[in-house]
Design brief:
With 393 residues, this protein is α/β, with parallel strands linked by helices. The chain has 16 helices and 13 strands. The strands form two sheets. An eight-stranded mixed sheet has the order 5-4-3-2-1-6-8-7, with helices on both faces. Strand 1 and strand 2 form a beta hairpin.
């Protein structure tokens, strides 16, 4: 089986999928992950039909970091009969100012990508780790980097700059936007599920542990809530979203916090987790009776509505609003509460369709189409990888 492996590595998990090349098309054959790295490690994988292929738990010391998780996953993948790995596609969060398209990776490219680690400290080092290991194991297997920033690179400079000296923009201090692989997939998928709005003005809300929104005009990104780093925009699981930079100055100058402490606070101790003191997981907050959990949800919904209005202004109006990612696809209550704030744009929710998880959740008389479209970043990565490597050899 000629196949493409897709790898999405995070700080405490490693997600992977295997796509078979069948007649020039991609068929998902394996979906798996290693989570709980260093705490309660567990390797799980299922085939395309959902049949469990492996479900192994480990002692913390056995899979104590990302490299050991990668090695264990690689060992298991070798047990799959007939697997002929032709290429590996990787999600890389930050492409900086120079990478606007997926690229084949070599040592020089890897070195350039490492320069952006400080811009995405939760993601970039972990995105690059499996690339280095795979290169060490077999340099003959092509590897492709697919960037979360690339989809947004067509924005005009006046939209992506900050009101700082131009020299800083030229050095790369600008708005990049993230979750681009998700938005690219949604833009393609809308052509199939709702062609009448795909060519119009659409806001896509990628709501998950990481959250952002993107304004699409005829399927192209024209504005995003995230900026220079993945801290900006909407509140997230453990990140604050939009923040007055004066807060950072205050924490350093008045509270005496070291830069490393501020970094930890902003990436690991803020957002839903920081506000609620309960959890960074929306499911936990929705199930909680703690008033602080309800407060965190109120804040999240409020900021979603504010940013939706901002993006609608960037588009000059709105034809459709799309929910996607973990919260967007699964939390009917959050969808309800966000849509309640969008009635001024003509949104009218169909409560029964929303509770049932239908793909269209707007009433027939709604001026604004409301959709739920599951995202598939891994398939997008596999497509780019196939395009760059030419498929089977």
């Amino acid at each position: 089986m000629d196949a493409i492996l897709v790898v999405n590595a995070g700080s405490s998990s490693l997600k992977f999928q295997v796509f078979a090349l069948v007649g020039g098309d991609l068929e998902r054959r394996v979906r798996g992950q290693v989570d709980g790295i260093g705490v309660r490690p567990r390797l799980r994988a299922a085939d395309g039909a959902g049949t469990v292929l492996v479900d192994n738990s480990y002692k913390p010391a056995e899979i104590h970091d990302l490299p050991t998780a990668i090695a264990e996953t690689a060992d298991w993948l070798r047990t799959l009969e007939g697997l002929k790995l032709r290429a590996i596609g990787h999600r890389v969060v930050h492409g900086g100012p120079e990478f606007s398209h997926p690229v084949l990776i070599d040592e020089a490219i890897l070195g350039r990508l490492a320069r952006y680690q400080s811009l995405a400290p939760l993601h970039q080092p972990n995105n690059l780790a499996p690339i280095r290991l795979a290169m060490a194991i077999d340099q003959d297997v092509p590897q492709v980097a697919c960037f979360d920033t690339a989809f947004h690179r067509g924005h005009p400079a006046y939209a992506d700059c900050y009101a700082l000296p131009r020299a800083l923009y030229d050095e790369g201090i600008r708005r990049y936007g993230f979750h681009g692989l998700s938005y690219e997939y949604i833009a393609d998928r809308l052509l199939e599920v709702s062609p009448e709005v795909a060519s119009g003005r659409v806001v896509v809300a990628h709501l998950g542990s990481g959250a952002s929104m993107c304004a699409l005009l005829a399927g192209r990104s024209i504005e995003s809530t995230m900026g220079f780093t993945a801290l900006d925009g909407l509140p997230m699981g453990s990140r604050p979203g939009q923040l007055d930079p004066g807060v950072v100055l205050h924490l350093i100058e008045e509270r005496g916090m070291a830069p490393a402490e501020v970094t930890h606070l902003l990436y690991n101790g803020s957002g839903l987790k920081g506000l609620s003191g309960v959890s960074n997981d929306m499911r936990d907050l929705l199930a909680s009776e703690d008033p602080a959990a309800a407060f965190a949800i109120d804040h999240f919904v409020h900021r979603c509505a504010l940013h939706a209005g901002q993006l609608a202004a960037a588009l000059g109006g709105l034809d459709a609003f799309v929910f996607t990612a973990g919260i967007g696809e699964n939390a009917a209550e959050i969808r309800t509460r966000v849509v309640e704030r969008l009635t001024w744009l003509g949104a009218q929710l169909d409560p029964a369709a929303n509770e049932a998880g239908a793909s269209r959740i707007s009433r027939p008389d709604s001026r604004l189409a409301l959709l739920v479209v599951p995202t598939d970043e891994e398939l997008m990565i596999a497509r780019h990888t196939l395009a760059l490597t030419g498929g089977p050899r």
